[in-house]
Design a protein that fits this description.
heterodimer, A: mainly alpha, 11 helices, about 0% strand, elongated, B: alpha/beta, Rossmann fold, 6-stranded mixed sheet, 3-stranded antiparallel sheet, 12 strands, about 35% helix, about 25% strand
Chain lengths: ~280, ~325
């Protein structure tokens, strides 16, 4: 039925927009979104005097694209996982289940609001960086690469977040996710070139989308000469888009199955039991 | 609000799943591990009926309702809700069912009107010639008495206001069947009365079939055409409040005065007792009052008997009485 599909899209867009607006007008949320970019900016600005060996670019500037990549990763995976866990506990998902096509619109709305907040988070890093740091090169080609990396990266990370959020039993479990993601960031060439790591770590790093998002962002924003620090001294565009696309396709394929299984188990009693458990933890 | 006397459900074996029945539940079982929570539940509901499901805590009321709502898979039995098995209900079926669960804390950052208008949108494609979906948000907010809170954030509502919003969300799609799980928990008397009026309106004007659970027997008596009592995993009583208290052989209390003295006597044979009283004392009897057992007394008696393992005996006894009653009325 085409009219129901239209409702899912329309309701999802409205949901996404309303939630996006709510986040932007909530002091606590805004503070949360500003905190880590502020820390990264301070670090990058303090490193703007030191040049990356063999190049004319400062270490601060060379880190910036990686910060964008890590922002996409955390915003996509953690953002979605945490929202799913919280909204399972407070009954938002059950509500979605109780209205026709509610689940579809709920998920589409989440995609819209999280994507919106990710773009805002990226701008919070990007815009001050362009004023405070120098050496960036931005062309029409860069914009295209940036958009491609962002779309594929977001699709993969949000779907992974949805899977993680479906498997978690409580919002507090989302904290545990930080550990593997932090480790992954450490071996993904975000803060130090991947070529400086042991070879086996390089292989692990390259198996995950994090590294390729960072590579894509660097290729789009840094001058051509900085390619010397990359693996094989190349931006490796075909591999970049292939790895990102494979991750996105696999995650997007599996996410609906895991979500459906989770949604099937949602009931009032399940929500009540989780709330009871949460209260006991507080008390 | 007196409905047609419902024949006892156990008499329907072998009939095809009910044409024209909104709810048709036969042999419903639910097992968690090795415990049977529901152990062969049978009942029906007809269009426009208001049915109250009563029972002690842990009797499985919420489990039953959640199975009917399609939120929970059953272990065994035949269940038909609006002619559809809720385990396989599609979105079209979902649009015809309204759900108010026991507790909800969702959408705290949304505003009252914003959320109602938003959720109403989902029902638009399911309008029919007879039913225009959804209910207009402002009209609905007015109907549940939340007009002055329409622009408030939901997390700022009091418990009773939040509950009214839950009810509003439950009916925003103009459901043909509405489930209410303890709808008036936390209501003050005024809110409770307004809610009762709303339920009457829904059942009278829109002929919505309503199934509710409650711990308030007074509320069940006021709202329901028919009361089901769930205990020991079975429906142990099924009838109007009046039938239940009239036909259970619970004692009535008789009060009178004679020669300025007050007397109280409890008996199951109140009519005979009063007759004897007059035969013996004639005009000397004054201020006569006969109180039939309240629904609460009936309920307590039924549940106590069911819990002491005599549930089947009570059910049979009640079934016989109801059948006799139906014949006499015909």
């Amino acid at each position: 039925m085409s009219s129901t599909r239209a409702v899912i899209v329309r309701a999802g867009l409205i949901r996404g927009w309303i939630e996006f607006r709510q986040t932007l007008t909530n002091g606590q949320d805004v503070f949360g979104y500003l905190l880590s970019p502020a820390i990264f900016l301070i670090v990058m600005v303090s490193l703007r005097g030191d040049k990356l060996p063999g190049t004319e670019i400062s270490i601060g500037s060379s880190i910036m694209p990686g910060v964008l990549a890590i922002t996409v990763l955390f915003s996509g995976v953690l953002g979605v996982a945490q929202l799913l866990a919280v909204e399972r506990e407070d009954g938002t998902l059950l509500r979605a289940k109780a209205v026709p096509n509610g689940m579809g619109a709920y998920l589409f709305g989440k995609v819209v609001s999280v994507a919106g907040m990710t773009v805002v988070s990226l701008l919070i890093v990007l815009v001050p960086s362009l004023f405070l740091l120098d050496g960036f090169v931005f062309t029409a080609g860069s914009a295209l690469v940036l958009a491609g990396v962002l779309v594929l990266g977001l699709a993969g990370t949000m779907a992974l977040g949805a899977i993680a959020g479906s498997l978690m039993t409580s919002p507090r479990a989302a904290g545990i996710l930080m550990i593997p993601m932090g480790l992954l960031a450490a071996i993904s060439g975000i803060f130090a070139p991947l070529t400086r790591l042991a070879e086996w770590m390089q292989w692990i790093g390259q198996a995950f989308p994090m590294y390729w998002m960072g590579l894509g962002m660097r290729s789009a924003l840094l001058p051509e000469e900085t390619v010397v620090i990359e693996v094989g001294q190349s931006w490796r565009y075909p591999e970049m888009f292939l790895v990102l696309a494979v991750w996105a396709v696999v995650a997007v394929t599996f996410a609906p199955r895991v979500l459906r299984r989770m949604a099937r188990r949602e009931s009032g009693a399940a929500v009540a039991a989780r709330q009871q458990k949460a209260l006991q933890r507080i008390g | 609000m007196t409905g047609v006397t419902a024949p006892v459900t156990t008499a329907r074996e072998g009939e095809p799943p009910g044409e024209g029945l909104v709810l048709d539940v036969r042999g419903l079982r639910m097992r968690y591990g090795s415990t049977d929570v529901l152990n062969g539940v049978d009942f029906v509901a007809r269009p426009g009926e208001v049915v109250a499901l009563l029972g002690p805590n842990g009797a499985g009321k919420t489990t039953t309702i959640e199975i009917l709502e399609g939120f929970r898979m059953r272990s065994a039995g035949d269940v038909s809700v609006l002619g559809v098995d809720p385990a396989h209900g599609d979105e079209n079926w979902r649009a015809r069912v309204g759900v108010v669960l026991q507790s909800w804390r969702d959408h705290g950052k949304w505003r009252v009107r914003e959320l109602l208008a938003h959720l109403g949108m989902y029902y638009g494609p399911y309008s029919t010639d007879k039913i225009t979906r959804p209910w207009d948000a402002d009209e609905l907010i007015d109907a549940v008495g939340l007009t002055e809170h329409a622009q408030k954030k939901i997390k700022q509502l009091s418990g009773g206001q939040r509950r009214r919003l839950d009810v509003a969300i439950g009916i925003v799609g103009r459901p043909e069947l509405l489930f209410l799980d303890e709808p008036t928990a936390g209501f003050d008397p005024e809110a409770r009365r307004e809610f009762h009026e709303l339920v009457h309106r829904l059942s009278d004007e829109a002929s919505t079939t309503i199934m509710l659970t409650t711990h308030d027997l007074d509320e069940a008596e006021k709202l329901a055409d028919r009361i089901l009592i769930l205990a020991g995993g079975k429906i142990i009583a099924d009838g109007s409040a009046d039938e239940l208290s009239r036909r259970m052989s619970t004692e009535a209390e008789i009060k009178w005065t004679r020669d300025g003295q007050r007397f109280v006597h409890s008996t199951t044979e109140s009519t005979r007792y009063v007759h004897e009283l007059f035969k013996q004392h004639g005009d000397a009897i004054g201020d006569l009052e006969v109180h039939r057992a309240s629904l609460e007394d009936t309920y307590m008696a039924l549940v106590r008997e069911a819990e002491s393992g005599q549930g089947d005996a009570v059910l049979r006894e009640f079934a016989e009485i109801t059948e006799v009653g139906t014949e006499a009325g015909a």
